[in-house]
Backbone:
């Protein structure tokens, strides 16, 4: 039978060991994630695309915002052209195929494809990116001020 | 706190706490899902598919919360060696795994109409899939130790090491460009309209209560198993 003081000491020892192990573990995980920071990204942003363009023909993904007013339908009726930007650089994109529901101007997009010889990105698949905002349809056109008024009105009426 | 580590006192506590948590959780979850499915307006971009939010987010929260519970219970077991802590970790694994699977399934169903794809290998989706595989591994290990006999410290260490994936899942959309959007709810701030946020919070609370109730019920069942085993062994000893 061990004395109670020894048992408490053993407990403290284990607590310290577990804490040290946890700190080492979190450190290792953070280091691994940090090392992966560029490789684990799902797409390139336009700024990276312009400063270090991938070789033409290599399969890559380009992600950014569809510029307002940039979507044009080509004469063949199925090909569309638009510009993907991130506020620092702009890349023209061409795509023919079915568009996802969320593909609209001013919204995020990830284009899978390759850089063409003329500097246009030729996409063979488009993925729409949703942003973190969830807004009901009837409130989307209103400004923040109008919305506050409406909510206040509704609360007065209730 | 140590008082509840006594199995007898624990059992008398769970006898009323389990049904209370399960019943209130199921009612709240049902109310939140009905609210989200029928009474919430469609989203400006996604339309009706926004309703998946009310199942997807609680499932994601509890899938990650389940492993956090495993990690905390495992650390407590490693330090204080109390068998109830090991049972709590084992009991949290199955519901955690189920919620992780629900999160992945609803996310995939949601991704098809909104993003235009069922699955992509981006940081968030991949790290969540890794969490599901960690649950498989943990359950296999914990059951093997329970059946074959072996130190409960082995699954506890696995549970603690696997916890490193939780902050990675959480930060994946911030560290790396991903198709999944960045977090909508951060400390003290929400990018979700109150009309969506209210049923979402009720759903998270409801499913969390269900989760807690299931964990307590499973702990009670595991404890019963162990006691029945011990009694059988004692009887066999007397007969011999």
Residues:
């Amino acid at each position: 039978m061990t004395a109670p003081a020894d048992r408490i000491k053993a407990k403290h020892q284990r607590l310290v060991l577990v804490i040290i192990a946890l700190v080492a573990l979190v450190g290792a995980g953070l280091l691994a994630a940090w090392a992966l920071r560029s490789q684990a990204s799902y797409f390139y942003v336009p700024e990276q695309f312009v400063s270090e363009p991938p070789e033409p023909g290599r399969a890559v993904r380009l992600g950014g915002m569809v510029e307002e007013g940039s979507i044009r339908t080509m004469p063949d009726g199925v090909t569309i052209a638009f510009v993907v930007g991130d506020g620092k650089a702009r890349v023209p994109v061409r795509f023919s195929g079915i568009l996802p529901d969320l593909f609209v101007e001013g919204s995020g997009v990830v284009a899978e494809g390759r850089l063409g010889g003329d500097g246009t990105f030729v996409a063979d698949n488009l993925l729409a990116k949703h942003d973190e905002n969830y807004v009901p349809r009837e409130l989307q056109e209103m400004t923040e001020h109008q919305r506050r008024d409406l909510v206040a009105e509704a609360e007065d009426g209730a | 706190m140590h008082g509840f580590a006594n199995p007898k006192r624990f059992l008398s506590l769970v006898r009323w706490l389990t049904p209370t948590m399960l019943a209130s959780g199921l009612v709240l979850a049902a109310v939140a899902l009905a609210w989200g499915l029928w009474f919430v307006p469609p989203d400006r971009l996604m339309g009706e598919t926004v309703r998946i939010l009310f199942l997807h987010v609680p499932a994601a929260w509890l899938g990650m919360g389940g492993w956090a519970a495993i990690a905390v219970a495992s650390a407590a077991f490693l330090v204080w060696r109390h068998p109830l802590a090991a049972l709590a970790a084992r009991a949290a694994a199955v519901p955690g795994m189920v919620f992780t699977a629900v999160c992945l399934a609803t996310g995939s169903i949601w991704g098809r109409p909104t993003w235009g794809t069922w699955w992509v290998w981006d940081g968030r989706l991949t790290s969540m899939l890794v969490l599901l595989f960690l649950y498989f591994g943990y359950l296999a290990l914990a059951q093997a130790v329970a059946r074959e006999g072996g130190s409960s410290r082995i699954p506890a260490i696995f549970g603690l090491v696997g916890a490193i994936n939780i902050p990675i899942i959480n930060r994946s959309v911030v560290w790396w460009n991903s198709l999944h959007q960045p977090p909508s709810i951060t400390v003290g701030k929400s990018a979700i309209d109150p009309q969506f946020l209210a049923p979402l919070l009720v759903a998270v609370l409801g499913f969390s209560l269900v989760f807690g109730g299931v964990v307590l019920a499973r702990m009670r069942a595991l404890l019963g198993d162990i006691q029945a085993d011990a009694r059988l062994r004692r009887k066999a000893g007397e007969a011999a």
Q: What stands out?
A: Chain B has one domain: 22-40+51-180+194-239. Strands of chain B lie at 185-186, 189-190. The two ends of chain B are 41 Å apart (CA to CA). The longest helix of chain B spans residues 194-239.
